[in-house]
Design goal:
- This protein is an alpha+beta fold and 550 residues long.
- The protein has four domains: 99 residues; 150 residues, Ubiquitin-like (UB roll) (Roll); 58 residues, no CATH class; 201 residues, no CATH class.
- The protein is built from twelve helices and 28 strands.
- The strands form ten sheets. Strands 8-9-16-15 form a four-stranded antiparallel sheet. Strands 17-25-24-18 form a four-stranded antiparallel sheet. The chain has a three-stranded mixed sheet with strand order 2-1-6.
- Strand 26 and strand 27 form a beta hairpin.
Length: 550
């Protein structure tokens, strides 16, 4: 606009020059100069306004420049530094990852049962942990209860730690995820540490039995009321309040000690007080009472049910209860044996249809005392039945040979000499029975030969007994009961073994021979030969014996 004003002034000047010849020329020039002056002033003012406006804008621009231009610079610097940092971080991450990926050792910060295995390979870690675990398992676990002390051998408990699995678990830390997960796990473990507890096993049943046994040995143990039979008397005893091991809690305590490898210090036994159960006479009677059972048999198929003696109080239950009213530690109740009407030995031959063997020896009927002894011994054995698996004892069946039992003095061997002794001659019954048993192919359990070869038997075919010292025993090794029958009459002592034949029975032969002799001794041996269908199946050595010469 100002510029347009300036141009207008020039046009006016040209017009003035064109009319200068008019009378108003001077006045017009003056007006024009004034107009030009004003125009210049306006132009100067405009320029000043533009300058002021420019300066104002410059000032404003200068006010915002400290925010805009430095922000761009810092962002640029930040981006550069971030890029450098990320590069360093990436390089470090890759280096860290590669180092750990190629490592063959357990990472830092890992312990197994408080044993640091950091930076160790699996083999050395296994050796370290195993050595330390074993060193913390003593030979005995010591237990205490007040002043009472005992111990349990750790060998009996078969304690075993699974150290190999713990080592493998330790080794997999920092290796069981992707690269980033593994690195994070490694760093976390480095600063927070990882404790691995290896699993373990031990024989809890063995420990439980040990604790139950120890409970019965505590000095202040609980003593339960009890009863037992002695010499046809029922002995009742009152119990006593005492300590009982809490097996479950004590076992749990020991288990924790094993886990912590803290077995070298004494472990307190956990107990509780218990009172004994009172004597229950009705219950005791029901447990004790047995009704007598008669023997029986069947023939199709053959079967024998042996007799059984019964037992009962010899006085009434009320009388026994009244006895307990008296304060005593022990009470004696008389018992009575109930005898069956039909004993096993009463079963006749119809229950034992087959004769398995028979054997006889001869004696002098003129020696009445000796004959009496033979009859007494034979009568003790005659009719006896042995069930399958049962063992016969000559001394137990015949009993002690005494004058009161009816035995008489007759010649016996004592220290190499013939002297009179009570029960002399009964070894002839033993010898006769021995041979009958061998022919029946029964199992010989115990047999001894005489000092001298007896007159009624060959060498190695005899059997002697001495009450309380030497016995003759055999076992019924058949599947069916056997019955022994013995007779002493008319100079012959005879034994028969009855039972039930089976398809696999053998024919039995006995051979004996003198193998050598000297001025003072005779040497002999005997064999049992088993045959089937006339053919020898097996041969057994019965005995090798040495006899003194008369």
């Amino acid at each position: 606009m100002i510029k347009n004003g300036t141009l207008l002034g020039k046009e006016q000047s040209e017009e003035t020059e064109h009319i200068s010849e008019t009378p108003l020329e001077a006045e017009s020039e003056t007006q024009i100069e004034e107009l030009n002056t004003k125009t210049e002033d306006l132009n100067n003012q405009s320029e000043n306004l533009e300058l002021e406006s420019s300066e104002s804008q410059t000032a404003k621009s200068q006010q915002f420049t400290p925010v805009q231009k430095p922000s761009r610079n810092k962002l640029h610097i930040f981006l550069i530094l971030a890029s450098i940092f990320l590069t360093i971080l990436l390089v470090s991450f890759v280096s860290f990852t590669l180092i750990n990926a190629n490592s063959k050792t357990i990472i830092s910060g890992v312990s197994i049962h408080n044993f640091d295995v950091s930076k160790m390979d699996k083999e050395n870690a296994l050796k370290l942990v195993k050595r330390n675990v074993l060193s913390n398992i003593p030979e005995e676990i010591k237990l205490t209860h007040g002043d009472f002390e005992t111990s349990i051998p750790t060998a009996d408990l078969n304690i075993s730690f699974d150290i190999s699995s713990a080592i493998n678990e330790a080794y997999t830390i920092g290796r069981n995820g992707n690269l980033l997960q593994n690195d994070i796990s490694i760093l976390q473990t480095l600063f927070s540490n990882v404790q691995i507890e290896p699993s373990f096993t031990f024989d809890e049943d063995a420990l439980r039995k040990q604790l139950e046994d120890i409970s019965s040995k505590l000095p202040d143990r609980l003593i339960e009321s009890s009863y037992y039979i002695e010499n046809e008397q029922l002995i009742l005893t009152k119990g006593r309040t005492g300590s009982v091991i809490d097996v479950d809690k004590t076992l749990a305590s020991i288990k924790q000690k094993i886990k912590d490898l803290n077995l070298k210090n004494n472990i307190e036994i956990i107990t509780s007080k218990h009172s004994p159960e009172p004597l229950d006479i009705d219950k005791i009677h029901s447990e004790l009472y047995v009704e007598a059972k008669d023997a029986s048999f069947t023939q199709d198929p053959y079967s024998v049910s042996p007799s059984e003696n019964g037992i009962d109080f010899a006085i009434s239950i009320d009388e026994v209860k009244n006895m307990l009213a008296e304060e005593k530690d022990e009470y004696e109740v008389p018992l009575t044996i109930l005898v069956p009407n039909v004993t096993t030995n009463m079963l006749g031959r119809e229950a034992f249809p087959d004769l398995l063997s028979s054997y006889s020896t001869n004696y002098s009927v003129r020696d009445r005392d000796r004959t009496t002894n033979l009859i007494l011994a034979a009568n003790k054995i005659n009719g006896m039945v042995l069930m399958p698996g049962e063992t016969f004892s000559y001394n137990k069946v015949v009993g002690e040979r005494t004058i009161s039992a009816g035995y008489r003095e007759a010649p016996i061997y004592v220290s190499g000499e013939v002297v009179d002794g009570v029960g002399g001659g009964i070894c002839q019954i033993t010898t006769t029975l021995y041979n009958a048993v061998v022919y029946a192919n029964l199992e010989i359990v115990e047999r001894s030969n005489h000092q001298f070869v007896p007159s009624y038997a060959r060498a190695s075919r005899d059997a002697t007994v001495v009450y309380g010292a030497i016995d003759f025993k055999f076992k019924n090794n058949r599947d069916y009961p056997i019955k022994l029958e013995c007779s002493v009459a008319n100079g012959t002592a005879n034994f028969q073994v009855w039972g039930l034949h089976t398809a696999d029975d053998y024919e039995v032969q006995i051979t004996d021979r003198v193998t050598g002799s000297s001025a003072n001794a005779i040497y002999s041996e005997a064999y049992k030969i088993l045959k089937q269908n006339g053919q020898v199946v097996r041969t057994f050595l019965l005995s090798r014996d040495i006899y003194k010469r008369h």
